[in-house]
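User: Sequence recovery, please. Input:
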């Protein structure tokens, strides 16, 4: 009997010891992340605002501290009206045109007085998913949602007189400043304003040519110079900014003002 009682006491002691040790071990439960919610960290995201030689860097928190406006968008694809809220870019600088460059180097040029915002919120919530962390919202009276580029990194204010434009049979009318020509080398090159040159084919690709495009007319201070699109793409000359003007040395073109794509 005594041996049986002793065996029970030893068993209980061993069991209690195991329970006690188990309670002292720290356990963690992995956090669950909802689907369709971006897990990317945007805490260090910055937007570079350029105006001539001046470059100002803004964090998202600094932009969120600025006066904001709302824009309504009746989105038929989802059957509801969205309320976008953000900073009108006109509060950041002045110019004839504003160039917006996204993190993946997409470029749009929007006339300065167009109604638009750099949206940081939609329906009262910070932007999430593919829209995060900042998105350009443009009044649809100007154009389509194709102008609503996401993940903006550069906002550039330019004067038309200091740019050459690409227009005509294109989907994306653009104004290239000397600084914007650096877009093909990345955001850092735009900010540092390093090279001021680009291949013509790359420039035309940014403008997105229509299938009807057949001719390229270079509009200059010395007159108009016309080439077939096929001929120009085969030569693919370099556009450079030198001595205060845009040039295409391989074609003998100086003082370039515009590139008109024609049928």
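Assistant: Recovered sequence (263 residues):
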């Amino acid at each position: 009997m005594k041996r049986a009682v002793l065996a029970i006491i030893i068993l209980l002691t061993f069991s209690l010891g195991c329970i006690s040790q188990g309670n002292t071990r720290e356990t963690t439960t992995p956090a669950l992340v909802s689907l369709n919610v971006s897990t990317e960290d945007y805490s260090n995201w910055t937007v570079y605002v350029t105006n001539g030689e001046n470059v100002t860097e803004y964090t998202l928190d600094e932009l969120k501290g600025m006066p904001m406006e709302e824009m309504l968008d009746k989105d038929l694809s989802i059957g509801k009206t969205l309320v976008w809220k953000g900073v009108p870019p006109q509060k950041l600088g002045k110019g004839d045109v504003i160039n917006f460059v996204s993190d993946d180097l997409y470029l749009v040029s929007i006339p300065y007085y167009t109604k638009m915002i750099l949206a940081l919120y939609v329906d009262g919530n910070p932007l999430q998913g593919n829209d995060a962390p900042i998105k350009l919202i443009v009044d649809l009276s100007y154009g389509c949602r194709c102008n609503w580029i996401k993940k903006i990194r550069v906002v550039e204010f330019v004067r038309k007189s200091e740019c050459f434009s690409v227009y005509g049979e294109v989907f994306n009318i653009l104004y290239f400043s000397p600084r914007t020509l650096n877009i093909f080398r990345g955001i850092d090159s735009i900010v540092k304003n390093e090279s001021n040159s680009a291949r013509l084919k790359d420039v035309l690709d940014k403008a997105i040519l229509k299938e009807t495009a057949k001719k390229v007319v270079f509009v200059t201070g010395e007159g108009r110079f016309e080439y077939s699109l096929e001929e120009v793409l085969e030569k693919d000359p370099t556009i450079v900014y030198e001595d205060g003007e845009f040039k295409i040395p391989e074609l003998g073109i100086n003082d370039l003002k515009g590139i008109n794509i024609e049928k």
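The first helix runs from residue 2 to 24.
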